[in-house]
Amino acid sequence: MSNHHHSIHHSIHLGTAWEPPPLVEADGRVLWTRRFGSPGGLEPGDVVLLVVTGPAVAAEMVLNAVCLPPLSAGVGRWEQDITPLLRGRNELLVRVAASVDGDTMLVQRGRGQLPSVIGTVALEIVAAGTVADGPVGG
Predict the structure, then answer these.
(1) What is the DSSP code (8-state) at residue 79?
(2) Whole-angstrom distance, CA of residue 115 vs CA of residue 100
(3) What span, in angstroms and rounded, lies between the C-alpha atoms of 90 and 103?
(4) Half-sphere exposure of 52 (CA within 13 A, CB side)
(5) Strands ordered across the beta sheet of 89-97
(6) In this structure, is residue 37 part of a structural domain?
């Protein structure tokens, strides 16, 4: 959750192919799922950031069964270094309150776009040596 300016090699938008929630969970939340492969062409020392811009709602983010720091409503940019969590095949889960977008959270069938209130989700590959060294996690 920083406003650092990184030297970005490449940005991969995860705007489509989200699996909509099949039902509202007992706690009143819904779960959006996005599966993706590990970014290709990574060089030693490159960092992969999971970035959400413009979220209007709070959300829980889980990558490959690891909970990430929570996404707060109204932050301009949320980012997390996910490099050590990446696998060949990855699963990103976004859990939000079902009521944040009315009934539209459940109406679509098949893969599609994440509701705009959650924000724009992307992977940013940052060149080796352009990110301040420090502990990763949250």
Answers:
(1) E
(2) 10
(3) 28
(4) 28
(5) 29-37, 89-97, 60-63, 66-67
(6) yes
CATH number at residue 68: 2.60.120.260
Task: Tell whether 86 is covered by a domain.
Answer: yes
pLDDT in tens, the chain (138 residues): 444 445 677 899 998 899 988 888 888 899 999 999 999 889 899 999 999 999 999 999 999 999 999 999 999 999 999 999 999 999 999 999 887 554 444 545 678 888 888 999 999 999 877 655 444 443
Which range of residues forms the domain containing residue 52?
A: 8-126
The answer to whether residue 134 sits within a structural domain is no
Categorise residue 13: left if φ over 0, alpha if ψ from -120 to 50, beta otherwise: beta
* Number of domains present in the structure of the chain: 1
